[in-house]
Amino acid sequence: MIDQPVPLPGFPDLLDWRSLNTTPTQLAPEHIQQAVSLSRSIYLSDQRWQVYLSALGVLGFEQWLGERDPDLMVQQNSQSQSGASIWQPSLANLLSVGCNIQVGAFKVCLITVGSLLDDQVNVPIAALNLPDFAAHFYVLMQVLEEEEQVAVTGFFTYEHYRQHQTSLHIDRDWTYALPFDWFNLDPQALLLNLRCLQPDSIRLAAMDVTQPSVALRQKLASLRSQFYQQPAWEILTVEEGMTLLSNPDLVNSLYVSPPPQAINVGLWLRNQIDSVAQELGWQLMPSPAMRSLREDFDTIRLSLEQQGVQIPPSARGAYRVLRSQQTSLRLYALTWLLSESSEWMLLIALGGDLDAQMPTSLQLEVRDEMQPLFAQSLDQVDRGLLYAQVVGDRSEHFWVTVTANQETVFELPPFGFETVS
Fold first, then answer.
1. Measured between alpha carbons, how far is residue 106 from residues 226, 231, 286 in Å?
2. 348 forms bridges with which residues in the sheet?
3. Which of 5, 156, 175, 372 gets the most CB atoms within 10 Å of its CB?
4. Do 109 and 138 form a contact (C-beta atoms < 8 A)?
5. Average per-residue pLDDT in the chain?
6. Short-list 140, 146, 138, 110, CA closest to 27
7. Looking at the DSSP assignment, which residues form a beta bridge with residue 375?
8. Is 332 buried (19+), middle (13-18) or exposed (0-12) by CB count in 10 A?
9. CA quadruple 180, 185, 190, 192: dihedral positive or negative?
């Protein structure tokens, strides 16, 4: 078995990607499209970017392998919802490396980075410690996204990890910082191992699935919405996280659900409201330009105008009450078409519900399919009013989330604008 690291070049050389690999693999346009498509199913922006890079790393590794030895093709369809972890969106929301990639009789885990500016590589502990994800070979892939290129940069074996794991400690984000000198920097040695080595020469840990406790199931159910706002390591302990990742049904329960129906704000311009909004308690408002408007919104409109937000006479909107045991809020949504354009404006305003006491902390967030667009909290404003403006085309949707007292989370179905005949 060839798994010993080769002598490491001088550290300044690490800053030059091509000094480590002179034969990068060029990605195809369809690879970029596949990675973008996958990233759209990831909720957190940091995780979305890493999953995007990891998907490119997996696709580039397949191509690199096929170009050098057709007998070593990855035995897994990249678009399959089973097998390689990176192509399972519910799992990729929690684990951004490419585990369970099958090359012949070997399991391979791909660790993808965008740059090599440090002498350490962060690897999720689940990819090393959980039998579901442990691999014979851990391969470091570097992606130069702007150049649309990838390179196999180095590798180490599971046996090497087991021999040195006592020197590692778990970081706050459930990762190990592995020394760069763990990696054999010769990609040809990886090919030779995959061709000639017997799988039983690298023994993987036996399967040992920890069943989730009732308390953990209840915790996940009560905090489910927070997994769309925060990384899992900010919500769960390490032990809880490893139990979660060991149980696919539990992972799917967090992220796999029917897509929410959108609230069609285009109907509001005809003084109509759809069934989705009606069921959630939305009520249409008259034109914001009319003096017969609800008095409570008149105050909000004045406050917005003082902040430079002008609501045109053509705007139409609706409101609903957000109520929990701790608080009661009033959320307004207004829309109008932008002149000489097919785009539409969505204005969200959030304030207290009439005489109800304002929460001690309040945050308003808006995101689209790809990324967060806006976040504002009470400590950032003077008048106790939060508002957001976003512009979209007819194909875009916007999600609004309200968090009160740092514990009550209101998640709304997306807002969309469908053409009204």
1. 37, 31, 65
2. 333, 388
3. 156
4. yes
5. 83
6. 146
7. 365
8. buried
9. negative
Rounded Cα–Cα distance for residues 353 and 330 (Å): 5
- Please tell me the predicted confidence (pLDDT) of residue 22: 52
Positions in the chain short of pLDDT 70: 1-22, 75-82, 117, 207-209, 256-260, 287-297, 299, 340, 369-370, 381-383, 419-421
C-alpha to C-alpha distance for 103 and 72, rounded to whole angstroms: 6
The pairing of strands 408-411 and 316-323 is unpaired
Cβ pair 402, 331 in contact under 8 A: yes
String of DSSP letters for 362-398: EEEEEE-SSSEEEEEEGGG-SSS-EEEEEEE-TT-EE
Helix (H, G, I), strand (E, B) or coil at 36: helix
Asked if 19 contacts 28 with a C-beta cutoff of 8 angstroms, the reply is: no
Give all strands of the β-sheet with 98-103 in edge-to-edge order. 25-26, 149-157, 137-144, 106-113, 98-103
Within a 10 A sphere around the Cβ of 342, how many other Cβ atoms?
Answer: 11
CA distance 230 to 241: 14
Where does residue 228 fall: left (phi above 0), alpha (psi -120 to 50 degrees), or beta otherwise?
A: alpha
Six token digits for residue 417 = 């604008």
Cα–Cα distance measured from residue 34 to residue 37, given in angstroms and rounded to the nearest whole number: 5
Three-class SS state of 237 = coil
84 in Cβ contact with 110 (< 8 Å)? no
Which pLDDT value is given to residue 80? 41
Q: Are 103 and 74 in contact (CB under 8 A)?
A: yes
- Looking at the DSSP bridge assignments, the partners of residue 388 are 348
Which residues share a beta bridge with 336? 345
Enter the pTM of the model. Answer: 0.61
Q: What whole-number distance in Å separates Cα of residue 378 and Cα of residue 342?
A: 33
What does the pLDDT read at residue 26? 92
